Fold each of these.
Amino acid sequence: MKKYYEIGKISLKNQMAYRFNVYIGSLMPFIRVFLAYYLWRTLFAGKDVMGGMTFSMMLTYYIICAFLQRLDQSNDLVWELAGDIREGRFSKYLVKPVSPLGHFMSISLGKTSYILFITLVTVLIIAFIFDKNFVPPVISINLILAAIIAFMGLIFMILINYLTALLAFKFTDITGWHLLKGNVIEFLSGALMPLSLLPLWIQDIMRLSPFYYIQYLPASLYLGLKTEEAVIGTLLMASWNLALWGLSEATYRRFRKLYEGVGI
Amino acid sequence: MKAITTMRRYFRILLCLFKFRLSNQMIYRASFWTVFCVDLSMFLIQLAVFSALFLNVESINGWNKYQMIFFVGTFNLVDSTNMFLFFFGVISIPLKIREGKLDIYLTKPINTLFWMSLENIDISSCMLFVPGSIMLGYAAAKLGIKLTLGNISGYFLLLALMLLLLYNLMLILRTLSFWFIKTDALHSLEGELIGFCFRVPGIVYTGIAKLVLYVLLPYALLATIPTQFFTGILSGGQWLLVILVTLGFTILAQTLWRLGLKNYTSASS
């Protein structure tokens, strides 16, 4: 476990080396929230509640989603790992006593630890700017459950991104898979709009998918909504993570035989 | 006469690049379809988002559901033409600068920017014109818009201007690689802005946001302006704004590119 902790620490230090990149990236939640503000201000004209949320709740929802989305740093790591596989650099994992999944997860969580601090500052600034339209956190069981489910969502994203990168063993170029997956998850996780705006029957189906719990449920719990779904959500996410972990390991064992080690 | 000869020469080069890419892309058939599938998914998701919004509201700042579909169709045309022509060429510029590969482009008797921008044409993106055109045709029919030579040519003129503007915006960010080593976050920021201006039509912005997204970072113009023209709500002042902004960003992009080239020291030589 200590070796993975060290890998995570190195990843965190690397992030500090590219501070310009990190600071520019921290502007992302600003853009998302500001543009959402203008859209929803127009949509709320003459309306008090939409999809079970007031305008303030809606804006807070986008702030929370932007925060959670920024915490997932495994998305860019897919390009790195897929590149390693394609160009023969993956051999380093075969000669080192580390599991590729453990390495991937450590790097990702190391990056997240640094980003967490920067993004928290960003979110506080946004909350200060939108003052009247920001619903402040209330320490409650909802908030704790939201944090637990959001963390599980983060692990889920790391696992799914790892699995996507592993596809490079078989397909070499995984650009399409990765981008397609990104588009679909962005919609299904509620990052584009709260899922409560969709027809009820679609919401019922979505509750079975893990994506519902990545951003939508934690943000709803923060707002004091969907409390009754918290426990089942935690159990479902734990099951999904376990299943995906098993699938990742099985895929790795099967696909690594296809590795050609180009250039060795 | 010399201008015509030059244009003919460049057209022949473009044709060669096209043929080269076609044979290249045919080797990787799976990849050939991926860009199409990814972009199509994006537009279908966007249609789903707007459909869900219109289950809850009747209009967005005066735009009805069909104007919104027209907006998505227009963005589809802008984006797919961008992907078809210069997207993959322009995004590869920073790597060429960083690794010194720009050297080889500079030594050839051809406009460097022309070659770099158009060498990675993506033919599969052409197929996205089909869903885009269906969306436009459907929305125009529902809006009861009569097709005339005037509104069709005006629409395509504005599309061409918006493409030029998008090209310049993309190029400006890539020229920063002459001065900074790692600019990935800026590109993500650009992706975020383009993505959002595709999801949020320019008509919702007011005040400073409008100034920023119409003039300083004019991503909001891209699909909004052609849609406003075709649906008959584009004023003369907005025409002027579009022309001036496009001209301004063209001059800025060219200036930065030239300054960057003067600053270029290559990577290994």
Note: Chain B touches chain A at residues 28, 30-31, 33-35, 37-38, 41-42, 45, 48-49, 52-53, 55-57, 60-61, 180, 182-186, 188-189, 192-193, 196-197, 199-200, 204-206, 209 (CB under 8 Å).
Amino acid sequence: MHILVCIKQVPDSAQIRVHPVTNTIMRQGVPAIVNPYDLVALEEALRLKDRLGARVTVLSMGPPQAEAALRKALSFGADEAILLTDRAFAGADTLATSYALASAIRKIREDMPVDLIFAGKQTIDGDTAQVGPGIATRLNMQLLTYVSHIDNVDLERGEITVQRRAEGGVQVLCTRLPALLTVLEGINEMRFATMPDMFRAARHPLAIWDREAAGVTDLTKVGLKGSPTVVSRVFAPTPRMHRAEIIQTQSDQPDDLVATLLAKMFTKFPDLRAAVRPRCA
Amino acid sequence: MNEQFDVIVVGGGPSGNAAAYTLAKGGLRVLQLERGEYPGSKNVQGAILYADALARIIPDFRDDAPLERHLIEQRVWILDDTSYVGSSYRSADFNKPPFNRYTIIRAQFDKWFSRKVQEAGALVICETTVTDLVRDGDRVVGVQTDRAGGSIYANAVILADGVNSQLAQRAGFRPEIAPREVALAVKEIHFLPEETIQSRFNVTGDEGVVIEMAGKITQGMVGTGFLYTNKESIAIGVGCLLSDFSRQKTTPYALLDHMKRHPAIAPLLAGGEMKEYTAHLIPEGGYHAIPQVFGEGWLMVGDAGMFVNGVHREGSNLAMTTGYLAAETLLELRAERKVFSARNLARYRAKLDGSFVMRDLRKYKNLPRIVEKNPQFFTAYPELMNKAAHTLISVDGIDKKAKERAVRKHFVSARSRLGLLGDIFKLWRAFE
């Protein structure tokens, strides 16, 4: 079985800062991490590898620094890593990104057919959740989003059965391979790499693919040129003015707490007193 | 399959990077292990880079190292609650390249330094904590990490794992650091637009200003404060002996908050946005606290070896120099085909003794004990000096002779004649 995992290097959104004067995002000094949702996808792929045996290839598109993300994936146990990097890819939105990735995946398939593609639910920087489905559509693959559990992979019949979180319940879906899965967060915990894996990841040669290697011929479909999305404005959310308040009560008895809260509420919103009629005096 | 290297460097700070870089450049097979997610992710400093120490290792570092501002002015402030007396030195000569001191942001600088280490040929592995040394009898022959999968072996191990050096403690090379031999420092970074910093500190371009502070900002504890200008931010911090914090039951953040409200400091920070809060331990024990720094197959560098000059607020340059000297020792022994035994590695200590590192630390060897026992230098004197300045500068119809008498009286009543003489003697002893 050949599993492909698509990962993205993103700025650690917990540490992103907005320039107070120009209102632009300050990327300088913000650490780059592997998109956390992608790590869930990678771990799920590695678990399948542990269970059934597989070759796991990780694929990423980004600037040369994205090498760090791929090395990290290698340390967890991925077998091969491919970095898609080319100036022509810069400034891509989800449409152009999925085009470039789909082209690269076609090239990867020439070398060894791909049975499963894993992607994270979405990225933490773009939050669109479009690239995974975009790749599946472009490659005409079965698409399973928001997968919360892989029940079974039947290689002989070429089928996969998964649980999918949906509104109002869980769907159990079976489809034919090859398929692309985007997986939910929290369904597994990433392993702690062993020392030999750390050495292997540090030394393993990465495949660095430019647009030619990735089989991209139509330059109007990649990078800024191939991106119809326009960012019209970036702004920081206005800080909330509401402040939390710690209210002292006589005791921690529930009726006392409720009475204190009600009294507080009625002083703040006097109209409520008339609207709320206590059931018992 | 066991990995074997010439040298394992434990830690990715300035001392470890200096050592790993020098060794790799010298052609040795080097493995550097860092516990943080990336080099610099766990490292905290003021931070001022003393160019000389780095230039001796990477002469052309200015070409691509991330530097904030080069310093053209140093101010020293002695503060009481409402005022300060100070001195400053500003010179156009500091504007002539090559510049002598820079402010840096460590997370960026350390990443750059680590890239240099990797380019030099060392293998750098992060997110890996060295938990123990592997020994063969007395000899250190490798390390054990928190990851599964066996030990890693080397002919020498350099302990560059910082002030707490749990590795050295576990190995029995160093006792647990005493609270009176270590300062706890906290620092905040406040963002301010470049133009604001330039006008507020009277600088242009990449020029920068340093303010070192002492006095009542430390609320009677032994310690100092600082304020450094970065390109688009200001670093402000304060550090005091850990033993004083615990005795006074003061929290570091409350101390820093109090300091930030000082009428001389608050306007410098006004309008800024706090972006970062960090804390760090700084070895302050000086010369007498330095442990045995070499043995059978191992060397200790940087904060792990307590190499900090507390008086001049120098640490990272000592770290780089000790790291460099340790590497130089190993390279020399290797060239002479000598083993890394304690006897041979004693050359490292000799190199240290001959360098500014030990000369400076020896000069101030008595200082930590003297200031610890004499808190008046941090409380009574700042107040007296500020009062004196106030008395002498105010014009209020009182004649100058009377003013001078009043100042003298203040000093004598606060410290007594004998006390004043004693304090002068103590200061002379500390700085002799």
Note: Chain B has a mean pLDDT of 93.
